[in-house]
Amino acid sequence: MLVPPWLERLLSTSFFNICRSHGDAARSECNMFCLDCNADAFCFYCRSSKHKDHQVIQIRRSSYHDVVRVSEIQKVLDITGVQTYVINSARVLFLNERPQPKGGKAVSHLCEICGRSLLDTFRFCSLGCKGNGDGSFIIQGISASSSSNQEEEELREGSQQDIYPPTPPPPPRSRRKGIPQRAPFRS
Length: 187
Description:
Layout: H1 7-12, E1 32-34, H2 44-50, E2 56-62, E3 65-69, H3 70-73, E4 85-87, E5 90-94, H4 127-132, H5 144-156
Antiparallel strand pairs: 1-2, 2-3, 3-5, 4-5
InterPro entries: PLATZ
Organism: Salvia splendens (Scarlet sage)
Region (Disordered): 145-187
């Protein structure tokens, strides 16, 4: 199976809007997506009432971009070749391409679709780029316990990768044009 029917809808869905049904409630942000229903995003309260026994993934935010935890998405989708990051002690990947200037001369790994610089030998920066690339998504049957154990081992081994590139050094300061002179003292 190449592309699951829900993936295109997931990538085009707008998340983090206020739920129309539960707008007054505390947890009313629409940050969940049902793989069974393949419909719009919904909130915590909609999940408990309408999607109780469905496969649901939670979308999170990182620097104003939508991410999903690797431990959730790899249960249902083959994510090999997609760059992952560690944010708040959880391994995540971005749903869609993020704007960035194209890689420079020093960058050795680039996303095959958008040209974003990658931290490792990955092929894609996001699920969206993988879908536009080779399009080979295989629905997974990985148990939750084996994927979470693997994630914990990676975190313990210190394989965390910083989500931001290193900060460039500040530009060199110009030297003073001369030695400061004091006004002469009057006697």
